[in-house]
Amino acid sequence: MGVDNGIFHVTMEMQANEKEMPAMPGKVQDHPQAAFRDKSAAQYLEISRSTFRALVKAGKIPPPLKPSQGVSLWRREWLDKFLDEVEGK
Superkingdom of this entry's organism (predicted)? Predict the structure, then answer.
């Protein structure tokens, strides 16, 4: 039984073209994450989740946005501002 080389060549050409094509502007991977849930925010700051929650409770990090029930989000710029304040900038 023979192998259908036509499909193989088309597939190989498509893979080669994908490697050469730059990422399309406006795709999600081109934009930094704008907001984080508590676990991701804590990871971004490289602190524990409980420390993050304590900082929010103490008012050192703003309270979250609540776009829907059960979803709490902190903006990246709020976290960056907190880091700047810790560094004394």
Answer: Bacteria
Helix 49-57 and helix 38-45: axis angle, to 10°? 100
Sign of CA dihedral 61, 41, 77, 67: negative
Q: Read off the pLDDT of residues 6-16 as tens digits, 9 standing for 90 and up.
A: 554 444 454 55
Q: The CATH number of the domain where 28 resides is what?
A: 1.10.1660.10
Residue type present at position 16: A
Going across the sheet that includes 71-75, the strands are 35-36, 71-75, 65-68
Query: Would the pTM count as exceeding 0.70?
Result: no
Residue 27 phi/psi, 5-degree rounding, is -80, 160
